[in-house]
Amino acid sequence: MSTGVTTLEAIASFAPERKVPIEDLVDRLGLRRTKLRLFQRVHGLKEIRFDPELSLFDVVLPAARRVLADEDTASRVRHVLYAHTTQAVTPAHIDPAREIRDRLGLHRAEAFGLSQQNCASGMAAVDVAGELLRAEGGPGDCALVVTGEQAFSPKIQLIEDVAIMGDAGAACLVTLDGAGDAVRSYATRTLGEFSAAMLLDEERALRFSKVYAPELAAVMRQAVAEAGLGFADIDLIVPHNVNLQSWRQTISELGIPREQVFLENVERFSHCFASDVFLNHTTLREAGRLVPGLHYLFATVGLGATFAAMVITHGASVTAQGAQRDAGREAA
Amino acid sequence: MENTAVVESVETALTEVLEREVSGLTPDVRLFEDLHLDSTSVMEMLMSLEDSMDVAIDPETLDMDDFMTVGTLTAYLQRLLGEGK
User: B3-84, which class in CATH?
Assistant: First the structure.
C-alpha cells in the first residue's frame, strides 16, 4: 500500500456553446413571476449552457479528451470513474462508465460509476481514485474522473427555490505524487435524514435550509484544519455554483471576506451537476488566477445530503520530475 | 405610505408566495413561526413587494432581524420607502 499524495495532474472542462437566459426557461420549468425574480435577483443567475441537440457523450467526452491529449498519458490510466448525479443517465442496457472508457480507447482501465452523493460525487470520485491508486497502483499510474450531465428533463433541471441546472462536463486526471495540484485534505459529511433529496417533505426541506450553511461551513473548516492551515492561508475558495444566496449565508457563517469565494461563474454557468468545482478551477487557471504553491479550497454540497470540501495546493508537486512538469505547464 | 397600506401590500405578496389567502395581519405576527415562511419564501415575498411598492431591495445587505414579525417587516419597508424619496 502506497502512501503517495493524491495529485490532480490535469483538470479540464467543457460547456456547450448554446447560452440560454434564465427568463427563457419560465415555461419549461413552470416558474411564476416572483420565482424567476428570486433566481435572478437573489440567487444571481443569468444564463445557463443548455443544448438538447447534444448527446450525453458530446458533453462528457471533450474535457476527458483534453486531459488525455498524449498517448503516454492515456496508457497510464488504470481506472475510469464516471461521477454523476442522476441515477439513470442512459438507457438500462448502456453502462455510461464503460461507454466513456471505450470511446476514449482506455481498454486497459476498469470503469465504474459513482453517483450516490449527487453533486458531491465528483470530489468523492477524486478521493476514491486516490485510494485505489494507493491500494493497487504502480508508479505513474493514474485514474480518470469524469463528470458531465444534461438537464434532459425539467424535473432534474429545477431544484425548487434553490437551483437551475445547466449542462457541463469535466475531467480530472488523478495520480500519486506526480505533477499537478496536491490534495492536502478531504472532509465530507453525509446527513442521511435528507436522503429524499429533491422529494423532501416540507418539514425536512425547511430543516435542510437551516442546517445547510452551518454544516457546509463546518466541513470547510474541517478540511482547512486537516490540511494544517487556517482560512487566511486559502488564496481562494472554489465553490459549487448553486446560487449566491446560499453562499451569502455560508460566507456569513464562516466570517470570511466575500472576495475569498470565486462566485463569478454562478451567473455564467449556474449549477452544473457534479462539475462545478472542476469548471471553476478551469476558469481560474485559464485566467491565470491560480498561483503555484498557494492553497485552494473546493467546496460543494450534494443533495441527499453530502457536504464536502477539499484543500489543494496548486502546482505543488512532491517529486523533482513532477516539479519539472509543473514548471513546463505554467510556462505554457 | 400609510402603515395599513404597507400591511395590505405584504398580505398581497404573501398570498402570491404562499398560494393561500393571507389577511388580517397584525404587527406581532411572526413570519417564520406563525406564517411558516422560510428564508427563501421571505426573499420571494420581497421580490413581489419590489414591484407592488416600487422599492429596490439589495440582497447583499439584508438583515434577517428585519423579517422577524410583520411589525419589523413593515418598519423595514417604510425605511426603504423613505430612502426612495
Answer: mainly alpha
Residue A3 to residue A61: CA distance in whole angstroms = 31
Domain ranges of chain B: 3-84
Contacts of A206 in chain B (CB under 8 A): 38
Mutation pick from A22, A23, A32, A41 vs chain B, by most beta carbons of B within 10 Å, is: A41
Q: How far is A257 from chain B (nearest CA, A)?
A: 13
Q: pTM, whole model, 2 decimals?
A: 0.92
Tell me the per-residue pLDDT of A116-160, one tens digit each, with 9 for 90 and over. 899 999 999 999 999 999 999 999 999 999 999 999 899 999 998
Q: What is the rounded CA–CA span in Å between residue A304 and residue A197? A: 5
Query: Residue B41 pLDDT > 70, yes or no?
Result: yes
Domain coordinates of chain A in residue numbers? Answer: 6-176, 181-331
Residue A225's DSSP bridge partners are none
Write out the three cell numbers for B85: 424619496
Which of A63-67, A197-201, A275-279 has the least mean pLDDT?
A197-201
Report CB contact under 8 Å: B47, A161. Answer: no
Residue A135 burial (10 A CB sphere; 0-12, 13-18, 19+): exposed
